[in-house]
Specification:
The structure holds two protein chains of two kinds.
Chain A: E1 5-7, E2 10-13, E3 19-24, E4 31-37, E5 44-50, E6 53-57, E7 65-68, E8 75-79, E9 88-95, E10 105-106, E11 110-114
Parallel strand pairs in A: 2-11
Antiparallel strand pairs in A: 1-3, 3-8, 4-5, 4-9, 5-6, 7-8, 9-10, 9-11
Chain B: E1 4-5, E2 11-14, E3 19-25, E4 32-38, E5 45-51, E6 54-58, E7 61-66, E8 71-76, E9 85-92, E10 103-104, E11 108-113
Parallel strand pairs in B: 2-11
Antiparallel strand pairs in B: 1-3, 3-8, 4-5, 4-9, 6-7, 7-8, 9-10, 9-11
Classes of the chains: A mainly beta, B mainly beta.
Chain lengths: 115, 114
Amino acid sequence: DTGVSQNPRHKITKRGQNVTFRCDPISEHNRLYWYRQTLGQGPEFLTYFQNEAQLEKSRLLSDRFSAERPKGSFSTLEIQRTEQGDSAMYLCASSPGGAVNEKLFFGSGTQLSVL
Amino acid sequence: QKEVEQDPGPLSVPEGAIVSLNCTYSNSAFQYFMWYRQYSRKGPELLMYTYSSGNKEDGRFTAQVDKSSKYISLFIRDSQPSDSATYLCAMSAAGQGGSEKLVFGKGTKLTVNP
């Protein structure tokens, strides 16, 4: 299966700790997105990359959050000094990068629990 | 007012029923409309994609977009227990000078009973 891969699937951490998630997009997909989903809500956009360039960031992405996509391949999302409100499913998606982002392929997400 | 409104349900129907799911939106710049299906503890999976107004059919699924009313629908015919999932509408203003992001509804949880 060559779908979007996210690791780890689950992460439990204590408040104040730093965490890092990894996303491996579908091979040759130029665009990579991060979304956050809390229970009973739809996914909320965080940021997206076109190759290695981070082109858009949501206001939800506070200065404790940083995302990178070195060499335009995999991406990492780091959360520093985690807070209980950061508990959520963090979803990564990729798309071929055509004219618009119409077909996003999502991974299964990383479920973060901050105690 | 949220940009996209979707009744979270839950919605429970018998097997074989026709299911109607709906979303309304407020941003007239939205041009791309999608329906995603999400099973428990999985990422969303694209079901239907429509550009601007009109209908699109794919097997048992029909998506409708009425931009004049800012209203989109997904119909599922001959519903099956395997259709039990959360259905998310999503929209984008990409290509219209707007954001590339998808804006999702809350999702409607559907259960199809055998």
